[in-house]
Amino acid sequence: MVNGETSGFACSYSNCGGSGKLLCLYNKAPTNNQPLYTSNNPTCQDCPQGTTTCVNWLCQSTPYTPATDANPQPSCTQNPGADKMTYEMQITARDMANYYRNLVATGWAKDKNGYTPTAKAMNALEYDCDTLGEDAQKLADDCAATSYASGIGMQLSYYKTRDLMLTEEQVLEKAFSTWYGQLENVDLDDKANYDSKVESNAPDFAHLVLGDATKLGCSVKMCEPQGFSVAVCEFDGTAPSVDDELYTVGKACSGCSAGKSCHKDLLGLCV
Known about the structure:
The relative contact order is 0.16. The protein has 2 domains: 9-61, no CATH class; 87-270, CATH 3.40.33.10. It is built from 5 helices and 12 strands. It has helices at 87-105, 129-140, 168-181, 196-201, 203-208; strands at 9-16, 19-26, 51-55, 58-61, 122-123, 126-127, 155-161, 193-194, 215-223, 228-235, 244-245, 269-270. Pfam families: CAP (PF00188). This is SCP-like protein. Residues 92-237 form the SCP domain.
């Protein structure tokens, strides 16, 4: 773990017979009877060739490009890699969206003055690379853009940051937590109405919890020369107008559409 020449590692885990196991592999092995690292003062003074700068007392490697043939593959059946997201990033987007949707649907999401009303039939979202993800990628890829517009029938949210030390995964995670965090700016009424305050202060939260949405797709772009990174996500839910209901209020997961039932883990969502 502390071998100075190590520049990469990967881990996997398994639950075998009630006992958890974690296995990690490192790309460099220590040399017998040799120092694990070179002691120096000041720290990080002599970074090796191939590294860029020193951050938090560690020499930073140049950006790592993941292998394109690594499994599991991203869910891009028609255009592999259309959203330029790894499988892990796609799953992160889907799971974070559904986690927040479930909090809202079950009434445990805290708004400005209380908690959100429960949702009668809020769908669990599936990740869509081929349409939504590809469209999000085309928008995010334009580093000269100052704003982003969704396609017809799609609802778009984006998150920009000038913290260039964040990885693509971290930018994506910050995007979802920021969008959900807008809920603290508003008091969602007992009908979950998209009122003028939600429109002004929590528009991305509204996209995140559209009850009739079934899919999302995202992309992240590191626009380093322009000094920012951006995450763009699109949802297929119906665009709300002022005073529309974001979702149908009622007992959580009591009104799923025909052929759907409550999620086995996220009990407030229909699948």
